[in-house]
Amino acid sequence: MKFASRLVATLLALYSGAEPTGENAHAFKALCQAFNAATAPINDADYTGGPNTVTTPDDLLYLLMTSLPAAEFSKETSELIDNTTDGWKAKKAALAAKKDDKNKPIYQLAPDGPTKTALAPALKRLYEEAKHLETTAKTLHDEVEQATTAARKAMAEAAYGRPDAEEVPQTQFAARSATCSGAAEATKPGISIAHDMVCVCSGATAGTGICGNGIGTTTYDNTKTSTHAATIKGLFSALKSKCELQRTYSKASPAAIRAALTAFEQTLGKEVNDGTGVQLKLGNNAASDCTGTDSETTCVNYAGVATGGNIHKINWVAKLDEAADKLAEAASKRAALEAAKVEMKQKQTTAWATAALLKLKLPDVPQTTQTAPKTQTSESDCNRHKKSEDCADPCQWNDNATDKTKKCSLDPVKGAKKATQAWAERGDDKKEEK
Question: What is the DSSP letter of 273?
Answer without folding.
Answer: E
